[in-house]
């Protein structure tokens, strides 16, 4: 099996993109907008359904954003650990000479 190496910079860039997506999702207050429909139409069939949708939507967004935030944090931690490991290995192997068979 061949290992796939992803540079730490690419992992960090992906984490940044994920964080940007979270910001956009949090800024779009679609659940609140749907909730306004519920408030505007309390006696209608759409009102209570809009209220349920708004509540679900808010929860889904909250859950997804929390999960994405955690993922971005783990990605950054992974990238940092990779860089630290590489630096430690470089330091340990500095000055070691490997004899060449003749």
**What is the string of SSEs from the N terminus onward?**
HHH
Count of alpha and pi helical runs: 3
Query: Per the principal axes of the C-alpha atoms, what is the gross shape?
Result: rod-shaped
Counting helices, strands and paired strands, the structural category is mainly alpha
Number of beta-strand segments? 0
Rg measurement, Å: 24 Å
Roughly what fraction of the amino acids lie in strands? under 5%
Low-confidence stretches: none
The percent of residues in helical segments reads over 70%
How would a textbook summarize the main sheet?
none
Descriptive report:
This protein is mainly alpha-helical. It has three helices and no strands. The model has no long low-confidence stretch (mean pLDDT about 90).
Which features would summarize this protein structure in a list?
77% helix; single chain; mainly alpha; 102 residues; rod-shaped; 3 helices
SSE blueprint and pairings:
Layout lengths: L7 H20 L2 H11 L5 H48 L9
Helix pairs in contact: 1-3, 2-3
Brief summary:
With 102 residues, the chain is mainly α. It is 77% helix and 0% strand.
